[in-house]
Amino acid sequence: MARTYNDLYLDTRHRLRKAGIESAQLEARELLCYATGKSREDFFRDSILYAPRPVEQQLEELLSRRLDGEPVAYIIGEWNFYGMTLDIDHTVLIPRPDTEIIAARAIELAKMAGEHCRVLDLCAGSGCIGLAVAQHAENCRVVLADLSEDAIQICRDNTRRNNLQNRVSCVQVDARENPPDLLWDFNLIVCNPPYIRSSDISSLDASVRNYEPILALDGGLDGLDFYHSISKNWKSALRRTGTILFEVGYDQAEDVSAILSENGYHNISHHQDYNGILRGIEATL
């Protein structure tokens, strides 16, 4: 029996909800758009039309992968962050809504710094934070830095995809080591580092544990390894009055604040996410 695109959407949404997936509405739309090759606008326009049988079969295959636990972003190979569409694969974390809070504050700080502002996105992953800054703070230049060669390639792809090559560069570095000579004089270092405790990795949701890169999740025994290293080693990369902005785990704000204070940072402030959890820690030299 032939079904319309809207019928397929409603059925997909129902099956996702039945599986306990909170964002069933969004994910059903994304899977159907990917299966049909349609934009969101095209999908809404054509929703009353009948879908070809191959589209139904393709959607069923995609839905089966999702119900097995694979995140939608990895299935479709892209995700939206702060109004940008980014390439995403299994070598980088999927950008989360909470990280948009960090991006928004980084954009504010970049704009406040004025002309010739320099921003470093350390542990950049997909480059989502730094690219959002470059997109919305046109006065600045941004460096995306990550240890993973695969992540750096994703950063380059996303830089090109969003036409930001003129103001964004990418470099491979280890955030736990001292910065190389070419990375210095930044107004802002923004960083969403690995911060999950090693012992907690096995208890993460299967969609995270089995699909997202452990390298980007594991923050060591107490989850604080990268905060210690970056706060200590990367001060030389900041200007005298530069700012460092971290994303932190739901229970790490106090510990990270103490680490920053111990390493000579001042004016430490906190930023809440959409659920009122302290998610961002900001400090200046």
At the first level of CATH, the class of the largest domain is Alpha Beta
User: How do the SSEs run, as a string of H and E?
Assistant: HHHHHEEHEHEHEEHHEHEE
Sheet with the most strands? 7 strands, mixed
Instruction: Indicate the overall shape.
Output: elongated
Number of strands: 9
> Given the helix and strand composition, which structural class is it?
alpha/beta
Q: Assign the CATH superfamily of the largest domain.
A: Vaccinia Virus protein VP39
The percent of residues in helical segments reads 40-55%
Output mean pLDDT: 95
Note poorly predicted spans: none
Strand content: 15-25%
Total number of domains: 2
CATH topology of the largest domain: Rossmann fold
Supply the CATH architecture of the largest domain. 3-Layer(aba) Sandwich
In quaternary terms, these chains amount to: single chain
**What's the gyration radius in Å?**
20 Å
What separation lies between the terminal Cα atoms?
66 Å
Can you characterise this structure?
The chain has 285 residues and is an alpha/beta fold. It folds into two domains: 5-68; 81-284, Rossmann fold (3-Layer(aba) Sandwich). It contains eleven helices and nine strands. The chain has helices spanning 5-18, 24-36, 40-46, 53-67, 72-76, 97-113, 128-136, 149-161, 206-209, 225-233, 253-262, and strands at 78-81, 84-87, 117-122, 140-146, 168-172, 186-191, 238-247, 266-272, 278-284. The strands form two sheets. The protein has a seven-stranded mixed β-sheet, with helices on both faces. It has a two-stranded antiparallel sheet with strand order 1-2. The chain is elongated and about 70 Å long. It starts with a helix and ends with a strand.
